[in-house]
Amino acid sequence: MEHKSDFLIIGSGVAGLLFALKVADFGSVCLVTKKKASESNTNYAQGGIASVFDNLDSFDQHIKDTLSSGNGLCNREVVERVVKEGPDRIRELIDLGVTFNVKDTPLSDRDGVNLDLGREGGHSHNRIVHSQDMTGREVEKVLLDRLKKHDQIMLFENHIAVDLITYSTRMKRGHVTTTHEDFCCGAYALDRENSRVKTFNAKITLLATGGTGKVYLYTSNPDIATGDGIAMGYRAGARVANLEFVQFHPTCLYHPDAKNFLISEAVRGEGGQLVDASGKPFMEKYDPQKDLACRDVVARAIDTELKKSGDQSVFLDISHKASTFIKGRFPNLYENCKKFGFDMTRDPVPVVPAAHYMCGGVVTDMNGQTDIQCLFAVGETACTGLHGANRLASNSLLEALVYADAAAGQAITELKTRDFLMPHISSWDEVGTTDSDEVVMVTQNWDEIRRFMWSYVGIVRSDKRLARARRRAEIILDEIEKYYWDFKVTGDLIELRNLATVADLIIKCAMHRKESRGLHYNIEYPSLDDARWQKDTVLRRPFVG
Ligand code: FAD
Ligand code: SIN
C-alpha cells in the first residue's frame, strides 16, 4: 500500500507536531508515529522551556550560560539564533493555546511580563517558562488537539518507520554512482495493527523521532526513545555527530517499581538540596554553584558519592519549604512520589542519575536540513550545534520550537520552488522471510545492550570498558543483521536493530574522543584537551558501491 503526500513527518513530539502545523497550510501531510500520538519524550517534560523574559535577564546571559554548559563545542551562531528567537516561539505557543504559569494572577500573559520563571542548573538567572511541573504534557496536548483538527494532516498512529527511502540523482543521469545516495523521497513504515509495511512517498521528509534513552538500562525516557531517527539517518548515509555526549539526569526517583520517573531539576531550582544517607549536603565539595551546577557535574558527583559510600541512592530534600508551596508548584511530582511512599513535604526522596538526553544526532544546518536533500531532522534526533558537549537544562524544547519553525520555512520554500524527481519506489520486499521462531533473540539482545551500555558506557568511562562494550555490540549487531533479513519485521525487531546501531555509534564516538569534556568522562584522559579535541565527533556510514 502506498501513501503519497507533500510532507512526511516521522514522530509526534513537539518537533514533529509544530513542523506539521506550520507546513500543513501549504501542502498535504502524512504524520506517522509509532504508538499513540501523545507517547513522546515531550509529553513527560517537566521543568519547562528556557527563555529570556525577565528585564534583569539578557540574551547575552542565556547565550553565555549555554556556551559554558556546552564546554567549547557549541556553535555560537546557532546558540545566538536559538536564544534570540525563544521569546517569539513561546508567544506563538501561547497564541496556539498553551497555558504557562504566571506570577500571582491566573490571567494569560502573552507579553511574558508576568510569566513565572523557574530556575535550573547552569542558568545564571530565573528563565524557565513552565506549566506547573508538567510543561511537556500541556504543550503536547495543545499541539496535538490542533493537529487533529487540521484537514490537510493525516495522522497514522501505531506506524513505526522502518527505513528512509533514498535515491541517487547521479544514477538517474546515467553515471556510475560513486557516493551515497543524495535524495530522500519518504520512508517505509510498519502498520503494527495489521503487520504490513506500507510505503510513504513524499517530496519532503522530516525525522522527528526523539532521543535514545532506552539504549541504557536506567533512563528517564519513555519506551519510544530507541534512537530510530539517528539509526535511519545513519543507514541512509547522513552524517551523525557527538553521540558520546549522553546526558544523565542527576535525579530520577529510586524505587524498584518506579519506571523512568524523573524528579525535575526545578526542585533544586526552588531550594531542594542533594544530601547523603546521613542527611549531609555534598554538592559544595564539587562546584561553587552547588546543587545548581551543570548536569554533568552533578551526575558525576552523585556517581562518586555512591561509589564511595556503597549506598544505592542519594536523597533530594525540599522538605524545609512550606507544604502548600511544594504541593502547588510540583503537584505531579508530589502525587507520584506519594504513590511510592515518599512525602516530599516531609521526607528526603531517594534519587539516582539515569540516561536522559542525547546531545548528538543527525547533523543539520541552520534550517534543519541534513546531508540528504529533502530530508530534514528536528528536535532531539538532530545535532544542530546548540548543545555542544552538554545541553543546558530546558534548552531542548526551546531548540525543537526554533528549529521546527526554521525547517518548516525552508521546506515550504522548497515545495514551492524545487523541481521534484519522483522515482518509482518498489514496495517492501518480504520474499523469503518467515514469521520469527526465535523471539528470545530480540528480548535477550535488547536486555544485554542496555546492561552493557549502563555498565561500560555510562557516566564514567575507561578505554577498557569501552573496548568491552564494542566487542559485545559487534557480536549483537552481526546477530541482528543475519536475523533481520530472514524474518518478517516486527516493531520489537525494528527497535532492537536501531538500539544496537545507536549503541555501536555511541561507543565509536566515545572511543574516538581521547579527552574528558562535558558529558564524556574517561578516567584515562581526565582533562580537557582543547588543542586536539575542540571539535565534533562525526561519523558517516561507509559508502557501499
Ligand atoms: P519526542 O518528543 O521524543 O517525540 C518523538 C516522536 O517520534 C514520538 O512520537 C515517537 O513515538 C516517535 N517515533 C520514534 N521513532 C519512531 C519511528 N521509528 N516511527 C514512527 N515514530 C517514531 N527538555 C526541556 O527542554 N525541558 C524540560 O523540562 C524537559 N524535561 C524532560 C523530562 C523528561 C522526563 C524527559 C524524558 C525529557 C525532558 N526534556 C526536557 C527533554 C525533551 O522533552 C525532549 O528532548 C523533547 O521533548 C524532544 O522532542 P522531540 O519532538 O524531538 O521528540
Ligand atoms: C527537568 O525538569 O529537570 C528536565 C529539564 C530538562 O531536561 O531540560
Key terms:
globular, 4-stranded mixed β-sheet, alpha/beta, 545 residues, Flavocytochrome C3, Chain A, domain 1, 7-stranded mixed β-sheet, Methane Monooxygenase Hydroxylase, Chain G, domain 1
CATH architecture of the domain at 250-353: Alpha-Beta Complex
CATH superfamily of the domain at 250-353: Succinate dehydrogenase/fumarate reductase flavoprotein, catalytic domain
Q: Give the integer mean of the pLDDT values.
A: 94
Residue windows where pLDDT falls under 50 for at least 5 positions: none
N- and C-termini, Cα separation: 29 Å
Secondary structure tally: strands: 18
Task: Give a description of the structure.
There is one protein chain. It contains 15 helices and 18 strands. It has 545 residues and is an alpha/beta fold. Among the domains are: 250-353, Succinate dehydrogenase/fumarate reductase flavoprotein, catalytic domain (Flavocytochrome C3, Chain A, domain 1, Alpha-Beta Complex); 440-529, Fumarate reductase/succinate dehydrogenase flavoprotein-like, C-terminal domain (Methane Monooxygenase Hydroxylase, Chain G, domain 1, Up-down Bundle), CATH 1.20.58. Strands 1, 2, 6, 7, 8, 9 and 16 form a seven-stranded mixed sheet that branches. It has a four-stranded mixed sheet with strand order 17-15-10-18, with helices on one face. A four-stranded antiparallel sheet has the order 11-14-13-12, with helices on one face. α1 (14-23) packs parallel to α11, α9 (323-329) packs across α10 and α12 packs antiparallel against α13. It is globular, with a radius of gyration of 23 Å. The chain binds flavin-adenine dinucleotide and succinic acid. The site of flavin-adenine dinucleotide has 43 residues, from α1, α4, β7 and α11.
